[in-house]
Specification:
23% helix; single chain; alpha/beta; 31-stranded mixed beta sheet
Length: 1233
């Protein structure tokens, strides 16, 4: 094996402020490298493939004989491509620039033609060098005591690059196996020594060892001094020359342990190894004058000045470019130079601490903005004509356009501007970069400028493309044809590009190498395209969040046997899952690992064939309409880590085979209708389980946990959500060893116990504790500990004692509907300053409202209703500007409403009803312009009903001012509340007429959309169906107008009957007069109609019989007369009290019967047959008389005038004369006036 085969030559020298890095096998400007696959770049501009190799090497078990044997057995692959290990080392060092001090160096890879041409010369030179080196080898192999001590020092040096060692050991093990065959104990000893190394050869340079290092190691001092020797060893450790050094150390270790290694083989091998070491490491320095102290500083002057101009155009608040000073630009951070020419070939200025766009809190780094570069990209970069790698990603260029001059840097192979806040139109000059392999322009935000992609056709070498977030709507008709021209493409990411159009077919498929396709968030409205099924190399497919991809899943999708990840969530896919799962299961070795079909309309059972997807790791089927139970074959999925089946219609028993999922980490089965019993068998093998969610938030319990109180689970849970499953009556003891819990949610579990002492001894630091809707009793322990931002909900239990406060880390505290007593702690606002939600309603709390609540500046919900609180309302509301819900109802609060409540400009629900508040409504309330519900009822408020309510509160849905002492008219501005659907002004002293404009309240004419139901919170009392009803969850369905018990007069406005969605209309106990409007039958949704205790007259309109929803009617104590309509809905209204107090009414259900001369019944009512026949005869005579009169009157006069001309002339002359006399008379009177 010759040295060129082993080492492949060095390629590139990178000197930066952070240390040496060898780039073996990486692309060099001016030469093509077909071995590099830019599709392997990860998001940071690193090679995923190399990272994977490095990762595997890092997990090499140095202490395992078997692992060493496997490494050796894999020798041929390493012998054929040994540069891969060095390439992995490269990526390791490249990713740790910020942590390693030193300099990076490598040598250029010799081309095959050059190797052949100079082979003879090399042999002669190697022979000469061998003669010189032989002396060093001889000294090295003597094994003196001084040499052994030096070797021990080297072996136990701690230096960075442990993964580099691991990578390098792989090809070294090849030689172990095929050349040395040392005893296994020696191999284990050496590998253990190497694993102890962690800090770096740079530390060696600062020690006293380096002075005589070469002589101590037996290297020939005639050729180089101690420092140069150190640098050779430094290169050896930074590249795959390390195995050579490792073998030398092995031989010395063998000698130290008196191993019987052939002296001849040892000398020959060391001679060969040392020859390779010298020829590969020393010759490039001597011949090229490179990597000496002077040559390292070499830098192209034009490029150095260009970099400085580029720096000047940037804003660098964190000083990331502070090293960009002096003459040696190749040492500058982020700059990489070519080893031979000194030209800049790489600029990596990616933000090392980027702001993440992952919404999860743990992935957010708030410090990322500090490290962002901004400003402008200087055109001086055009001078970097050898630049092949340019990364400005995750910085902030504040909407500036991508510079068009980048298209002139023609040697670019890697361009990453993602997340850098560039905007505007993409310059078409980017299409000139025909050698570009990797292009990432993902904006991570919605880009308003519309772009086309025709310029892509020039990127013939492109293998990775990400244009996510760009508006490509201009290309919606041809984007697929353009992409199809990129034959080398292996990864395509076009997420959130507004492509809109997903063609169903293609004339031919040119992108057959495509392995990853992301077309998510494009609002496609089509079926799954057929051409997808021909992409046989596809491993990752993401069509999620398009919402319009419809139809059934094709069995052809199952033919993509290489598919590892399929994401179709948030679409409109229906049908069953059987076909596609059956197709995937027929693959010889299905690669499917992730299947995400959440938020679709899939139905039917989950097929048994699911069990054949043995590699499946994540199954997400949430929010569909699946039925049936979980198939028993689920137990075959031994690799499954995530199982999400929540929010379906599944039922039946949970199979015990679920317990075979030994790799399961996340189990989510909640919001289904499970039945049966869960035992230890369901959970006993789930040693990796960390999250479990099962049940349905409902009072109905159909699942029972039958687990022994002595059972110790094998898992350590962090998240538990069990709802509507019987765990009680005792607190579940199988939680005793769950000392890693962060979230504990147990609702409707029928636990009638107290919180046990052992739960407190777990020492938990919780993020969420929700034990609501049980029957827990006693006093909640004060020793519970919570993390920052935690939530506590102990509502609807039987806890008692004073109000507990716990940690200042709490953000939400729900203690409603318990038996807590005593005052609200005076220091509650100081102990819990971070609270956003506080609900302590429905307890027995007394005393006043503490002033310290004003310190809770983040509060959004404050509910203290239904207690025994007294005193005035404090005036601290301007300190809580973000309050969303304020409910202090049903206490004994007194005094006036403080004006500072008007500073709550964001309050949606203002509920102060059921107190003893007095005075006028403060005008400052008009500032609450976002209010949905204003409930000030059942107080002692006085004054006129303010007109500003209708003008300044346009969003009002509920206006409840009942049972106060308000006076005056209803202002017409109330009619402008177009969203109002509950209006209750009853039991006041309002007067005047009922405004006819109330018929314009459109909220009573249109139904609410689903999104309109979201803002409803709290409870509301509504008088309906003759009693007081309390609405909560269905409050959005209530449509009510109650103006009863006032002093209104005049008629009932007929305009009210246009409110056809009105459910309750109560106008009782007023002074209304006149008839009931005949059009009242238009109130087709009316359920409650109360017009009692007025002065209404006339008949009951016949149209009321058509009110089919009417179930409560009160017309008593008026002056109505005539027959009561019968038939239809009136057949159910049989209570005589409905009509009492109307002495002129007759008919059922009243005892007064109507006489024949009485008012005729409503057609369709029950009347005698004789009366029907009499009515029919009267109608016949009526029509005969009318017809005869018409004939005689018309023809008796008109015919005579027509037939007798003289009569006609006289008649018309008379009419003309009469007209003239009337005109003259009118004119004369006008002149006299």
């Amino acid at each position: 094996m010759d040295s060129s085969q082993v080492f492949g030559g060095a390629e590139e020298c990178h000197s930066s402020e952070s240390g040496w890095t060898m780039y073996i096998g990486s692309p060099v400007q001016g030469e093509e490298d077909d071995d590099i696959d830019p599709s392997g770049y990860d998001a940071h501009g690193e090679f995923d493939g190399l990272a994977e190799e490095n990762h595997k090497a890092n997990h090499h078990d140095a202490n395992s004989d078997d692992s060493m044997a496997s490494d050796a057995s894999s020798g041929p692959s390493h012998r054929e491509q040994p540069w891969k290990a060095g390439r992995g080392i490269t990526e390791y060092y490249k990713g740790h620039d910020a942590n390693v001090d030193g300099k990076h160096c490598s040598s250029h890879k010799s081309k095959k033609a050059g190797v052949k041409k100079n082979r003879h010369e090399k042999k002669n030179k190697e022979k000469d060098e061998a003669e010189v080196a032989a002396k060093g080898v001889k000294h090295f192999t003597q094994g003196s005591k001084a040499q052994s001590e030096a070797i021990d020092k080297v072996l136990h040096l701690k230096f960075a690059g442990l993964s580099a060692f691991s990578n390098a050991i792989l090809p070294a093990s090849l030689v172990f196996q095929h050349v040395l065959y040392p005893p296994e104990s020696v191999i284990q000893t050496i590998l253990k020594d190497l694993k102890d190394i962690s800090s770096g050869w740079r530390k060696l340079e600062k020690s006293s060892v380096n002075t005589n290092l070469c002589s101590d190691l037996g290297l020939p001092t005639q050729l180089f001094d101690g420092k140069l020797c150190f640098e050779i060893l430094e290169i050896a450790t930074a590249t795959f020359l390390l195995p050579i050094l490792t073998l030398i150390l092995v031989l010395n270790a063998c000698e130290r342990r008196q191993m019987q290694v052939s002296s001849m083989a040892s000398d020959s091998l060391q001679y060969f190894l040392f020859l390779v070491l010298i020829s590969q490491a020393i010759n490039p320095w001597i011949k090229q004058g490179f990597c000496t102290e002077n040559s390292r500083d070499r830098c192209n002057e034009i490029e150095r000045k260009s970099l400085l101009q580029f720096k000047e155009s940037l804003s660098d608040p964190s000083g990331r470019l502070s090293s960009w000073t002096g003459e040696s630009c190749c040492k500058w951070k982020g700059v990489t130079c070519d080893i031979k020419t000194g030209h800049v070939v790489k600029l990596n200025l990616r933000n090392p601490f980027p702001q993440t766009f992952d919404p999860t809190p743990e992935s957010f780094d708030g410090n990322g903005m500090v490290y962002e570069l901004s400003g402008k990209v200087s055109p001086a970069l055009v001078n970097l004509q050898h630049l092949s790698y340019f990364d400005l990603s995750m910085n902030n260029f504040q909407g500036t356009q991508i510079p068009g001059f980048l298209g002139s840097v023609t040697r670019l192979k890697y361009l990453n501007l993602s997340g850098a806040s560039f905007a505007g139109k993409i310059p078409s000059s980017i299409g000139n970069l025909s050698g570009l392999h990797y292009l990432d322009l993902n904006s991570y935000t919605d880009e308003p400028v519309k772009n086309d992609i025709q310029w892509l056709s020039g990127l013939s070498s492109l293998r990775y493309l990400d244009l996510g977030g760009l508006d490509l709507s201009r290309a919606s008709s041809h984007w697929l044809r353009t992409i199809n021209m990129l034959a080398s493409l292996s990864e395509l990411h076009l997420s959130q590009c507004q492509l809109l159009n997903l063609p169903n077919s293609l004339p031919f498929i040119n992108i057959t190498s495509l392995s990853a396709l992301d077309l998510s968030r494009n609002n496609f409205n089509s079926t799954m395209p057929n051409w997808l099924f021909n992409l046989s190399s596809l491993t990752d497919l993401d069509l999620s969040s398009n919402y319009g991809i419809r139809g059934q899943l094709s069995r052809n999708l199952g033919n993509l046997c290489k598919l590892r990840a399929l994401n179709l969530n948030s679409n409109n896919i229906f049908g069953t899952l059987t076909e596609v799962i059956d197709g995937l299961s027929e693959c010889t070795n299905s690669s499917m690992e992730t299947l995400d079909l959440t938020f679709n309309q899939l139905s039917g059972n989950i097929p048994n064939s699911l069990g054949f997807l043995k590699n499946l790791r994540s199954l997400r089927l949430r929010n569909n309409s699946f039925t049936g139970s979980i198939p028993d074959t689920i137990g075959n999925l031994s690799s499954l880590e995530q199982l999400y089946l929540s929010y379906n219609q599944m039922s039946g028993a949970i199979p015990e085979s679920l317990g075979k999922l030994v790799s399961l980490v996340y189990l989510d089965l909640h919001e289904n209708s499970w039945e049966g019993v869960i035992t230890e068998a369901h959970l006993v093998n789930m040693s990796r389980l960390t999250e479990i969610s099962i049940g349905k938030l409902s009072e109905n319990i159909s699942v029972v946990f039958n687990i022994s109180p002595d059972w110790i689970p094998p898992f350590k849970l962090k998240f538990v959500q069990i709802q509507s499953c019987q765990l009680g009556p005792k607190f579940p003891t199988w939680l005793k060893n769950q000392d890693q819990l962060k979230n504990l949610i147990i609702n409707f579990a029928r636990i009638s116990d107290s919180i046990p002492e052992w739960f407190l001894r777990l020492g938990l630091h919780l993020d969420e504790l929700d034990l609501a809707y049980n029957n827990l009793s006693g006093m909640p322990p004060n020793s519970l500990q919570f993390n920052l931002g935690s939530n506590v909900d102990l509502s609807s239990n039987s806890f008692k004692g004073p109000l507990p406060l716990w940690s200042s880390n709490l953000t939400t505290l729900y203690l409603r509907n318990n038996s807590f007593s005593g005052p609200i702690p005076r220091d509650i606002g100081m102990v819990l300053p971070l609270l956003t939600d506080l609900d302590i309603s429905r307890n027995s709390l007394t005393g006043g409202i503490p002033l310290s609540i004003g310190n809770m500046t983040s509060l959004t919900t404050l509910v203290i209703s239904n207690n025994r609180l007294s005193g005035d309302i404090p005036d601290f509301w301007s300190n809580i500007p973000d309050l969303y819900i304020l409910d202090m109802s049903n206490n004994s609060l007194t005094g006036r409403i403080p004006t500072s409540i008007g500073s709550l400009s964001f309050v949606k629900f203002l509920i102060l009803s059921g107190n003893n508040l007095s005075g006028k409504l403060p005008s400052s309330l008009r500032n609450c312009t976002s209010t949905f519900s204003l409930d000030l009822g059942d107080n002692q408020l006085s004054g006129r009903l303010p007109a500003w309510i209708g003008k300044d509160m346009p969003s009002l849905l509920i206006l409840r001012l009942r049972n106060n002492s308000l006076t005056g008219n209803i202002p017409s501005s109330i009619c402008a509340l177009s969203s109002l659907h509950i209006l209750d002004l009853s039991e006041n002293s309002l007067s005047g007429i009922i405004p006819t404009c109330l018929g314009n309240l459109s909220g009573f004419k249109a139904g609410l959309k689903t999104e309109d139901t979201e803002p409803y919170e709290g409870r509301l009392q509504v008088v309906a169906k003759g009693r007081v009803l309390v609405y909560q969850s269905t409050l959005y369905l209530v449509n009510s107008i109650d103006l009863s018990s006032n002093k209104f007069r005049g008629n009932i406005p007929a305009e009210l009957t246009s409110l056809f969605r009105l459910g309750t209309l109560n106008l009782s106990m007023n002074g209304l007069t006149g008839p009931i409007p005949e059009t009242i039958g238009r109130l087709e949704r009316i359920e409650t109609l109360d017009l009692s205790m007025n002065k209404l007259t006339g008949r009951i309109p016949q149209s009321m019989a058509a009110l089919t929803f009417l179930n409560h009617l009160n017309l008593s104590h008026n002056n109505l007369s005539g027959r009561i309509p019968t038939g239809n809905q009136f057949q159910t209204l049989t209570d005589p009290s409905i009509y009492e107090g109307n002495i002129a009414l007759c008919g059922d259900p009243l005892p007064t019967k109507c006489e024949n001369s009485g008012t005729k019944p409503y057609p369709g009512g029950n009347v005698d047959e004789d009366e029907n026949e009499e009515d029919d005869l009267e109608k016949l005579w009526f029509f005969l008389v009318v017809g005869l009169g018409y004939f005689l009157g018309f023809w008796g006069v008109c015919a005579s005038l027509i037939l007798k001309k003289s009569w006609g002339d006289a008649y018309f002359n008379f009419l003309l004369g009469l007209k003239d006399r009337i005109f003259d008379l009118a004119f004369a009177k006008w002149r006299k006036a």
